[in-house]
Amino acid sequence: MPLPLIKLGVLFVKQMSKPLANAVKRSARASPTFKKICMKPAELYHSYEINIKMRILGLGKPTQKQALSPDKAVELGAEMIGEITLYTFLVGILYAEYSYSARNSEREKDEKKQYLMSLERHVTELELNSARVEAELRELQRKVGELDSKSYSLMEKVYGKGKKS
Predict the structure, then answer these.
(1) Which of 41, 47, 71, 75 is the most exposed place for a label (fewest CB within 10 A)?
(2) Residue 129 and residue 132: Cα distance in Å, rounded?
(3) pLDDT (tens digit per residue) in 117-142
(4) How far separated are the first and last CA of the chain, in Å rounded?
C-alpha cells in the first residue's frame, strides 16, 4: 500500500517542480553569462554521450567528433540546469522528510525512555513498599507469637497445667 502512495507523491512533486525547472531554463537561455559558462560543460556532455552511444552500438571510438552548435549547446546546458534544479529540489524534499522522520524517531525514543524510567521508579517504589509491608508483617507475627505465648501462660495460671480449651 505505501509504495503506490510514494510513487504518487514523487510524481506529484515532480510535476509541481517542472514549472520551477522551466523558469530556470528560460532565464538561463536569456542570460549571456549562462551562455559563456555552460557552453563547455554542454559540449563535454555531448562528447561523452556520443562516445558512450558509439561503444554501446559496437561501432568503437568515433573518429570524427561533431561539434555542437552554440544554440544547441545553450539548449543542452539549459536542459541540464533544469534537470539539476529538479533533482536538487527532489533531494531537498527527501532530506527534509528524512530529517523530520529522524526527529520523530528520536522524540519517540526519548518518550519511551522516559516511560521506562518512570516504570523503573514505580517498580522500585513497589519493591520498597513490599519490603516495608513484609517487615511489618514479620513484626506483627512476632507480636502475635508473643501474645499467644502470654495467652498460653495465662491460661496455665488460670486453669492449671495441662488444661487447654
Answers:
(1) 71
(2) 5
(3) 999 999 999 999 999 999 999 999 99
(4) 81
- What's the chain's length in residues? 165
Give me the amino acid identity at 4.
Answer: P
> C-alpha grid cell for residue 112?
519511551
Domain boundaries, given as residue ranges, for the chain = 2-114
List, for residues 16-67, the tens digit of each pLDDT value.
767 766 776 777 677 778 777 777 778 888 888 888 888 888 777 766 767 7
pTM for this model (two decimals): 0.52
**CA geometry: angle at 136 spanning 131 and 137, to 5°?**
95
Nearest in space to 65 (alpha carbons), one of 77, 54, 79:
54
Three cell numbers at 66?
561533431
